[in-house]
Write a structure and sequence with these properties.
alpha+beta, Alpha-Beta Plaits, 4-stranded antiparallel beta sheet, 3 helices, 4 strands, about 35% helix
Length: about 100
């Protein structure tokens, strides 16, 4: 099982991409959460509200998801797309996830 972590500036865009991922059968679940990111900008420390998207999928779908995210990106800055390999997940959830992914 793989988690893909992506942040968006806009909730509408995050939801749009999340729905596409699910409709295409690339993931079983997508979680959206409000976040406040801090980062070093050209003029100092920046505090930026946004949306974190956590995509639950399998290794075979990572590249397709990454491509879709890039195709749908309308932000001024490129999104960070972080892939996290999950060492272990309960059997029932893993089996269910496999039924969701095409």
């Amino acid at each position: 099982m793989i988690f893909i972590h992506v942040t968006y500036l806009d909730e509408e865009e995050a939801k749009k991409v999340s729905k596409l991922i699910l409709e295409k059968g690339l993931a079983g679940t997508v979680n959206l959460s409000r976040v406040n990111s801090l980062y070093q900008g050209n003029e100092g420390l920046v505090s930026q509200p946004g949306i974190t998207v956590l995509i639950k999928t399998v290794e075979a779908k990572v590249q397709e998801i990454e491509n879709l995210i890039h195709e749908q990106n309308h932000q001024k800055i490129p999104p960070c797309i972080a892939v996290i390999n999950i060492f272990r997940v309960n059997k029932e959830y893993k089996e269910w996830l496999q039924t969701c992914i095409k």
